[in-house]
Design goal:
- With about 250 residues, the protein is α/β, with parallel strands linked by helices.
- It has a domain of about 170 residues: P-loop containing nucleotide triphosphate hydrolases (Rossmann fold, 3-Layer(aba) Sandwich), CATH 3.40.50.300.
- Helices cover about 35% and strands about 25% of the residues.
- It contains 10 helices and 10 strands.
- It has a 6-stranded mixed β-sheet, sandwiched between helices. A 4-stranded antiparallel β-sheet has the order 2-1-4-5, covered by helices on one side.
- Helix 3 packs across helix 4, helix 3 packs parallel to helix 6 and helix 4 crosses helix 6.
- The longest helix is centred in the middle third of the chain and has 14 residues.
- It is globular and about 55 Å long.
């Protein structure tokens, strides 16, 4: 996935300015920076979630498998199947665990019960949740813990077989144990998916990501391998942020 000259405005406010970034396949890319710097706007631009904001205007290109996702011919529903999203707070549907995971495949035309059963089990296995919920598949998902709910949401994304998974501060509402499980899961998932994660937690970015981009005031200031960016940043603003001088 690649962005070329990507800019986003909300009304007269420019939230993102001409960002060029190549997101490596089957790796984890972390986006860091202070609040309001443009990282979540950038993330939402990758599957056109900003389209849902009336005042948002997007310029530039976002390429997925060489195709511009902002081209008029692009089916946005199909795009969001290929580029799934996990939000800051777990948002399971008010239905059973099973129905949460089966919902997406049903929307995309899967009707066969055996096929749905298979998808549900495989998705929950991939989200490291199957063993915890296999005996309560038909109970409300709202009865799960916060960490379990977030992994259920990830299973729901996996059920429609995406290529890219976007995560917007997925651990911010979780306790340390649940956060650790989620980070372990991210490490496993990158073998099959490309993952982009927004996080305010720089230790988390250092732990889970292969590449990191630092955003500041709408600009992508610096991007590179995580180890290098955290130990030898090339821009003073990056160094000031990761050493806690601002942000």
């Amino acid at each position: 996935m690649q962005t070329i000259g990507l800019s986003v405005c909300y009304g007269n406010m420019e939230a993102l300015r001409k960002v060029d970034l190549e997101i490596k396949g089957n790796h984890v890319t972390a986006l860091i920076g202070p609040s309001g710097c443009g990282k979540s706007t950038f993330l939402r631009a990758l599957n056109r979630m900003n389209d849902l904001i009336d005042s948002a205007r997007t310029r530039g290109r976002v390429l997925l498998d060489g195709q511009d996702i902002y081209a008029p011919s692009v089916d946005v529903v199909g795009l969001r199947k290929r580029v799934g999203m996990v939000f800051q707070r777990p948002n399971p549907f008010p239905m059973s665990v099973y129905e949460n995971v089966a919902y997406g495949p049903r929307v995309h035309g899967v009707r066969d019960k055996r096929k749905l059963d298979q998808i549900v089990e495989q998705s929950l296995q991939a989200a490291a949740l199957w063993d915890e919920v296999k005996d309560r598949l038909f109970r409300s998902a709202l009865g799960l813990s916060g960490g379990q709910q977030q992994r259920l949401v990830i299973a729901r994304v996996l059920a429609v077989e995406p290529e890219v998974i976007l995560m917007d501060e997925p651990a911010s509402a979780l306790d340390p144990i649940s956060t650790g499980r989620l980070e372990d899961l991210i490490d496993q998932l990158k073998e099959r998916y490309t993952i982009v994660i927004v996080t305010h937690n720089m230790q988390q970015a250092a732990r889970v990501s292969d590449f990191t981009g630092f955003f500041f005031m709408g600009d992508l200031v610096e991007y590179g391998p995580t180890d290098r960016l955290f130990t030898a940043p090339r821009d003073k603003r990056t160094e000031d942020y990761i050493t806690g001088r601002f942000g």
